[in-house]
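Exercise: predict the fold of this chain.
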Amino acid sequence: MRAVDGIKGGKFIVVGRVGMDLSPQDRTQIEQATEMFMAMGGSSANIAAGLVKLGLSADLVTCVSDDAVGRYCLSQLDKYGVGRSHVRTIKGEERTSLAIYETRVDDHQSVIYRNNAADFQMDFSDVEGVDFSQFTALITAGTVFAAEPSRSAAFRAFDLAKEAGIPIIFDVDYRPYSWPSAQVASDVLSRAGTMSDVIVGNDEEFGFMAGSVDKGREMARDLAQMNAEIVVYKMGHHGAVTFAGSDEISTGIYPVDAVKPTGAGDSFMAGFMSGLAEGRDMKTAILRGSACASIVVSREGCAPAMPDNDQLETFLLDHPGPTADPTK
């Protein structure tokens, strides 16, 4: 199955974490906060919520702790309509991830608690309990590979997805604090990239995988020539270059007054996948992902800020348009 054909099927199995996000209200610093805004977070859960908001289907595979935070995450998945029959509650000392971040851009602070994380306890039984033939595409983010047994389980999920004939969509999402070393991260993320049909990452992430920032774009191009059907090389405010077969598609961004830097990548993925699922051409789908990213950074929260179709269409109608082709 071609990657785009699977994406058009619109039934995604998303592998990776769900967590709780806290952010001070009134854009104050964490150390001065008296009230917090609470929401669902975690890169994979955010992507899943974004997909559902845009009219697609998404089920999550992960583990949560048997406590109030874990139960909060389960209730939030229900709220967003994300399937959680493959989310396992575990007992023990592992804890569901907690992120505290500021709704501000200048001097932004973010603190993420990932020590002994519950989602890293996902194992073979969790992914082998999934009937991958019931889905049309798999999505995961790089954090799922940062520790065992989650790492081996995620690679097992890749194998099972390939056996089922569904495409693998991989968001590199490199977070140094989760990994035992930079070398391990580079090796593992590169291996995941060579198994994926669609790869999305920023210039620093591809540069990290290549061993040097100035080699990142060439690595993205090489992956598109070797195994991946689509590789999106994001360059922040400079836009993105997408490698698809022999095509290199350059796109800009939708400038907004950002209130925070978080959640953009997750929303980009949801919008990009939605655009392809709707049968839009590659450039239009990428720009819809960029528009979703801009919407999220202009709002409070991550999962709550993900747009639905009406909000996305309104944004596109009201916005003067993306910036010019970054390569020209």
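Check your answer against the key: The longest strand covers residues 57-65.
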